[in-house]
Amino acid sequence: MGQVKVRKFLVSVEEIFHEGGPPAAVPPKRGLILAVVENPYAGQYHTDILPFMEDLKPLGLEMARRLLAALGGDPKSIEGYGKGSITGEAGELEHAALWHAPGGYSMREVLGGAKAIVPSAKKVGGPGTRLDIPVTHINASYVRSHFDSVEAGITDAPRANELVLGLVMTTGPRVHARAGGLAAAEIRGEDGLR
Predict the structure, then answer these.
(1) Pick from 122, 123, 125, 41: which is nearest to 89 by CA?
(2) Which Gene3D superfamilies would you find in this protein's record (predicted)?
């Protein structure tokens, strides 16, 4: 297919000191990167859309590296991740689904082979559409303390012929996590679940 046409990137990092409880000794951070790209399949049905998934792989790596840099650059500091995509109104949900492999594998590679599946969300919508991107621990999906979500969106995207592609990384659990379950220190790392 060719090169992915990027209109813009948005990168944001939030640092959470507390949610009414005691301030965290090390405040966790939640980082988000979004890319607004042209959807080459917008406007009509295409049977074979897999070539664009291949085209998105270099963009996924670039976005994962940019996001990691915004969070300090140390892959060992990242404990949670997620991904999501929004397709504009001339696209279809399956176009947004093309982000699953490029978005997920790029973060796993940049973080040194994280084991857990990268949770995902996708939808169809116009400019200003918001998406809650789910987050789980990078090595064990059952670690409840890291269940989270980051709201994502851009006021002028996606236009009808665009996609908004997103990655999220976090540096720790929710600031006052105390919902029990498997603790990060108890991860066995055998299957990406526990």
Answers:
(1) 125
(2) BB2672
| DSSP symbols for 90-132 | TS-HHHHHTTHHHHHHHHHHHTT---SPPPEEEEE--TT--EE
Residue 89 lies in a domain: yes
Average pLDDT over residues 56-72: 98
Give me the phi and psi of 99, to 5 degrees please.
-80, -15
Query: Does 194 reside within a domain?
Result: no
Q: Average pLDDT of 111-117?
A: 93
Q: For residue 11, give the CATH number of its domain.
A: 3.30.1330.110
Q: pTM for the full model?
A: 0.96
For residue 121, the cross-strand partners are 84
Q: Domain of 79?
A: 6-186
Question: Which residue is it, tokens 């949770």?
Answer: 119
